[in-house]
Amino acid sequence: MLRLLTAGESHGRGLVAIVEGLPAGLPIGVDEISGELARRRLGFGRGPRQRFETDEITIVGGVRHGRTLGSPVAIEIANAEWPKWQEEMSPEPGHPSRRLTQPRPGHADLAGMQKYGFDDARDVLERASARETAARVAAGACAKALLAKIGIAIVSHVVQIGGTDASAGLRPTPGDLATVDASPVRCFDPSAEATMITEIKAAAKEGDSLGGTVEVVAYGVPVGLGSHVHWDRKLDGLIAQALMSIQAVKAVWIGEGFDIARRRGSVGHDSIYFDPGSRAYRRETSLAGGIEGGMSTGGLLLVGASMKPLATLNRPVLKTVDVLTKEETVSFKERTDVTAVPAMGVVAETMLALVLASEALRKFGGDSIAELERNHASYLAEVRDEHWPSAVTD
């Protein structure tokens, strides 16, 4: 299984991701990681910080000559702004030049200050910042590389921003990823894309923000990842937890999600068919999103996630209280985006990739990529074997 640990603050020296559990022999390098991080910076409505977040990558350990060693992989992402923040964010003994005592609504500020006994919101917001997702995406590049070795590919697309929805049923394949990324809002529906951009411009003009929804699609997921045996190993539960951990995400669903609750059972499930040619079972629909009983079915895996409108606004109107004076005031402003939904899709891909890679390793095992591939191929042959299941006799 994979384990991921991230460290670092938004305006600190940098971010660090440590990925444990990758088999030996996985090709990975700075270029692949940088490519994924560049995708995270995409999206109309992002703030000025994206123009100078260059995401300088250093692989500190776990990779030699472009291949993993089987040991933990450590990746560092330097902060280009560190010289400006070196004194304010210094780990050395001292004091900040100014304490932030007005916690922002919609952020971790106040709860974190109360939990840890801080009198400076920056002690909370620096770590709670969505900048942390850069470390996750770096780790996700490794997970995606592993999944590619066993034929799994993941693509996300924006299906709603503000009051604008993409046309239902339009779903990109892995071959459409470049087209999705070329869209300013990472939307696969050109007509909805234009309306989304118009809505973002209107919100920006008013100093406001917008939330939205992405769909993440995984192709090539084999049957049997996850478990029906243990509550904490159910694949849909693991995915939901992973996506809900993304900053500002407030809802996650699998397949048809909330809409399936409106259907009758007779039209709310994926019928099962058998293809004699491939000796494989199939489903013609994906109402359950490719997961039944906590396990992948071998079909299309569909996940949705909704993000709230960002709580830091260019027009500070949200009321708060100064924790020292107890006087009412308005929320202070850090640099902000009008919307980060397109970028959230890339992070959602990452979190799904990390879960699927971890479950693939749990299922197939292997200390090396070659061993993982052999185990995966053997398993696929077994579940398609014409003698399965064994005949039952009296």
Uncertain segments are none
Largest sheet properties: 5 strands, antiparallel
Q: Portion of residues in helices?
A: 25-40%
Number of domains: 1
CATH class: Alpha Beta
| Percent of sequence in beta strands | 15-25%
Order of helices and strands: EEHEEEEHHHHEEHHEHEEEEEEEEHH
The count of strands amounts to 17
> What's the name of the CATH homologous superfamily?
Chorismate synthase AroC
Question: Within the largest sheet, what's the order of strands?
Answer: 8-7-9-15-10
Q: Could you name the CATH topology?
A: Chorismate synthase, AroC fold
**CATH architect. name:** 4-Layer Sandwich
Query: What gap, in angstroms, lies between the N and C termini?
Result: 41 Å
Average residue pLDDT: 93
- Backbone CA Rg: 23 Å
Number of helices: 10
Kindly report the oligomeric state of this protein.
single chain
Secondary-structure-derived class: alpha+beta
What would you note in describing this structure?
The protein is of the alpha+beta class and 394 residues long. The protein has a single domain, classed as Chorismate synthase, AroC fold (4-Layer Sandwich). Helices cover 30% and strands 20% of the residues. The chain contains 10 helices and 17 strands. The protein has a 5-stranded antiparallel beta sheet with strand order 8-7-9-15-10. Strands 1-2-6-3 form a 4-stranded antiparallel beta sheet, with helices on one face. It has a two-stranded antiparallel sheet with strand order 4-5. A hairpin with a 2-residue loop joins strand 4 and strand 5. Helix 8 packs antiparallel against helix 9. The radius of gyration is 23 Å and the shape is globular.
